[in-house]
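Lab channel / #folding
Pinned by the channel admin:
"Please post every new chain as: sequence first, then the structure tokens as a reply. Keep commentary short and put observations after the output so the thread stays searchable."

First post following the new format, from NK:
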Amino acid sequence: MPLRRKHVFRIPPPAPTTIYVRPGYNRVLAEEFEALKRKRVELVKDKVEAHSQGDLRENFGFKAAKEAIRAVDRKMTALDRFVARNTFIEVDPATWLTKPTDTLQLGHVVTVEKQDVATKRRHRFTFLVTTHGETASDEASGIECLPHNSPLAAAMLGLTAGTPTKVTLPAGEAILTVGAIRNPTPAELERLLTAIKPPELDEDETV
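Reply from TO:
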């Protein structure tokens, strides 16, 4: 009987996309990759030193260094694929202070009502639609950051105020009604926009 190859199910990689980021994000990505490379060099030194200490079967330092190197390699691979798969366009938040507000765009503050179709429950939010990776909230104004590439932001971008729109979100169908669109104030941007950080990548990125 001929042998058959085992079929392994793998989640397909995400499609290439355009991600809007703040100035300096590409530099942060490069610095993160260089930091991982330096960390790997030090771990390799630890591994070599531990290897010289005798029986590898009971050498916990060697095993720990080996696993740490693998973890760094996974992060480097994930970061490299993240950069290769996507195009990054830098956007200066200063341009958000005077944008037209006819339709919802990146950089606007929006008040939106979300009604779940299945449960009829209503939720009201105030968001700053912002660049990739922003998750801060402002207690003074009640505004939360909503990254432009999140499912909710993707469904809202381009909508006008006062027009209920039925959309499909990961949690199910919902009706979105934009109540108001305005530009942020300099003080709101100062409180909401945090230091740029490298992405938190899922393990799936390394598959």
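NK: The longest strand covers residues 172-182.
TO: also worth noting, The chain has a mean pLDDT of 88.
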